Amino acid sequence: DRDVTGVQTCALPISAGHDQLTPVRPAARAEVPLDAWAAGAAARRLAETLVAGTRFVDMPLYRLTDIRVGKGEIGGSLGITPFASYALTLDLLEGELADALAAGIPPEPGALPLRDRYLPDLASVLGVSGRLCAGGALALCAFARPADPYRGPADYALLVQERSSSVVNATRQLAVIPKGFHQPLADFCGDAKIAATLRREMEEELFGREDIDNTVGEQHAADPLHPSRLSAPMHWLLTENPGALRMECTGFGLNLVSGNFEFACLIVIDSDEFWSRFGGQIEASWESSSMRQYSSLDGGSLAALAEDSGWSNEGLFAFLQSLRRLRQVGGDRVDVPAIDWSVQS
Questions:
Q1: pLDDT tens by residue, 3-14
Q2: Is the pLDDT of residue 345 over 80?
Q3: Beta bridge partners of 291
């Protein structure tokens, strides 16, 4: 079961005083040697990528080497690893597990060769300094909307995506949006902050900034998120009305399926004016095959959505954690059922 007793909503502001992830010096790399079985799996992954037309670009990724998530702080250290090192090793674990379950093979030691090699036990999951632990940040976006004579009272528009068939992760699965790998864009030190990934992914996945999509072309700008380069919606949020944008980390996890680190986040835009001015400009990128809109007052639809079997595991985690937090802070704009966690045998 994906529920865990005692999981709490972090509600940790993602700002300079709290977001303390830093790159290690010199940048630590994780070498992942391949035996014959692992090399064969990597070759099959490359072949499948070519056949499916998946976008595969070997850009740098941050890898977690230490983590401290506590009251008032996200701390820890990050190294650098090539995307290919991750995509051809640890990223194969979820597919191996899914194939075994579909074939009726019990997921136990000896039955999953890649998992036995890369993530054999709980100690290997927690020992991030000794393995390749990539991951990222994903966020539920909540856009304040004014009352509408047809829709009803003031609420938040909540956005959920179905991932496209061209992405490497969570293909054709539901996820919150934005969702991205934690990776440097141009500033390897500054981009280590979770806020940098969220701002970049908002620009790319919601506001149409193709020039910061490293799967489309090379990056030549010294400061891709300089105020002079921002999209109109992001410029309005960051420079004209900075108080309208709130970003919080609502949960951190080490994914037992993939071994990834996951920062579940909530992005709230509290100004009705933003949606009135820019709501029509919000459009998903190629990474989504479709995007759905839900009202924060439609508790029935949100409950049904939470039960949808199409979710990626990290997507559902972020969705539920962020709904819990939005229920606490959204006031009359939010009417969703209480969300509790439990362990089921």
A1: 333 344 568 888
A2: no
A3: 161
Q: Which two tokens stand for residue 239?
A: 């420079």
d(CA 313, CA 3): 11
Long-range residue pairs from 191-194, CB within 8 A, at least 24 positions apart, any chain: 192/21, 192/22, 192/23, 192/62, 192/78, 193/14, 193/16, 193/19, 193/21, 194/14, 194/19, 194/21, 194/74, 194/137, 194/249, 194/263, 194/265
Cα 74 from Cα 67, distance rounded (Å): 8
CA–CA distance, 299 with 177 (Å, rounded to integer): 20
Residue 184 has pLDDT above 50, yes or no: yes
Q: Which two tokens stand for residue 4?
A: 């865990």
List, for residues 110-153, the tens digit of each pLDDT value. 999 999 999 999 999 999 999 999 999 999 999 999 999 999 99
**What is the largest distance, in Å, between two alpha-carbon atoms of the chain?**
64
